[in-house]
Amino acid sequence: MTLVVFDLDGTLLDKTSRVSPYTADTLSMMRTRNISYTVATGRTLQAAEPPLRDHHFTLPMILKNGAIIWSPAEERYSHYHLLTREEMWHVLAAFTLNELTPFVFALQPVQQHVLFHGPLKSRSEHKLVDLFEAERHLPLAPLTEMPDDISVINVFSLGGAQAVERVQASIADEDHLVAYSGIAVHEREMCEQATKEPALHWIDIHHSMGSKGNAINHLRSELEIEHVIAFGDGDNDLSMFHSASECYAPANADSRILEAADRVIGHHDEDGVAHFLRERFELG
Predict the structure, then answer these.
(1) What span, in angstroms and rounded, lies between the C-alpha atoms of 168 and 159?
(2) C-alpha to C-alpha distance for 252 and 256, rounded to whole angstroms
(3) Quick check: 90 and 74 in contact, CB under 8 A?
């Protein structure tokens, strides 16, 4: 069995965070040819479902960069790696010391996502909260209301490059933690337009076993997969590239991903993944 695995933002989705009509037609062609596919994304289930709806993503979905796997058929999380209480407080302390507002993604006992956050200090943080609440349908609550027994998936923040780098350095020696980072998508577009405002960076900290690569290895065994073709654009996709049989990066990808890819394909906003798939599988 061959499994095609897509990152979402900056890879399968266009700049409006949607599956374009051309890509939707390509997915339909893949289904006709019985070519299996799924996603490996940093999004929660609530955030991933809207753009994927009506495109028949029926296989287990790798979410939160591999920290959890959702099984649509069983309607449950079949696999996950969570942060311990001590690890979470270590991360929160690092964020606080560097004046970064923490956003804690957690699972409630009913397997529903919830987001707890510190005091909001910037316009970008307020916009982020609006995005999570309105577009991605995440329940939000202040960090002070987070229960002691909540299951914590990851901790996220936005901030300047130096603050993000200091947080990464502070957890570098923690074997059970891994940090992913990059330029916020809308900020990257601003930079490309030569604005003078410094770009905001994002940072996302997980349990080190909660990677896309480990999640793919789990699916290999569970689904008896022989061949994995992966597409991604950020450093959180590197572990997936290392686990895949073939790996491809859109032209907009980060430099490390471009170097790690077997081949660089078209830009994510020009249906680069779909064009490549039609060529790779002779879909017509």
Answers:
(1) 12
(2) 12
(3) no
The position carrying tokens 């529903």 is 112
d(CA 245, CA 256): 18
Residue extents of the structural domains in the chain: 2-81+210-280, 85-207
Please write down the HEC assignment for all residues of 78-118: EEECCECHHHHHHHHHHHHHCCCCCEEEEECCCCCEEEEEC
Assess contact for 254 and 237: CB atoms under 8 A.
Answer: no
Nearest of 232, 234, 237 to residue 263 by alpha carbon: 232
Q: What is the DSSP letter of 43?
A: S
Instruction: List beta partners, residue 227.
Output: 2
Domain 85-207 has CATH 3.30.1240.10: yes
Three-state DSSP class for residue 230:
strand
Task: State pTM to two decimals.
Answer: 0.84
Contacts of 161 (CB under 8 A, 6+ apart): 198, 199, 201
Pick from 207, 212, 200, 187: nearest CA to 8: 212
Q: What is the per-residue pLDDT across 24-82, written as a single tens digit (0 to 9) for each? A: 999 999 999 999 999 999 998 888 999 999 999 999 999 999 999 999 999 889 888 99
CA angle 132, 137, 141 (to 5 degrees): 65
The edge-to-edge listing of strands for the beta sheet with 263-265 is: 36-39, 2-6, 227-231, 246-250, 263-265
Please check whether residue 216 is in contact with residue 240, taking contact to mean a CB–CB distance below 8 angstroms: yes
- For residue 84, what are its two tokens? 């311990």
Q: At what angle do helices 21-32 and 272-280 cross, to 10 degrees?
A: 30
Dist CA 201 CA 188 (whole Å): 9
Model pLDDT, residue 139: 87
Q: Which fold has domain 2-81+210-280?
A: Rossmann fold (3.40.50)
Question: What is the rounded distance in angstroms from the CA atom of residue 119 to the CA atom of residue 100?
Answer: 10
